[in-house]
Amino acid sequence: MRARDKAAVSALRATLAALDNAEAVPLDETAPRAAALEASPVGAGATEAARRELSERETLDVVRAEAAERLEAAAQLTAPAHADRAERLRAEAAVLLHFLDDAEGTARSA
Fold it and tell me: What does the alpha-carbon distance between residue 29 and residue 27 come to, in Å, rounded to a whole number?
């Protein structure tokens, strides 16, 4: 596997996880946290929570934030010993920015 592919895989996996986290529904602070076992829901999917659906703009914002996070981390790695890590972070950010450019270009032409 080429080094660029490793950067792409790493960036895309982390971004998919960030998108998954963004779709999570916040817990209601007033809801009870624990109940009696016999009062708990039963059956397949009984404990599944509905997920939020992100708009296209929200999705692009998450991807943009992931790219910015990588660029910021790379900028902080100034020691020569961290040059490889900084370059990998820049490569991951480049992958994400490429996807953003493609997505924003498609949105403009539509």
Answer: 6
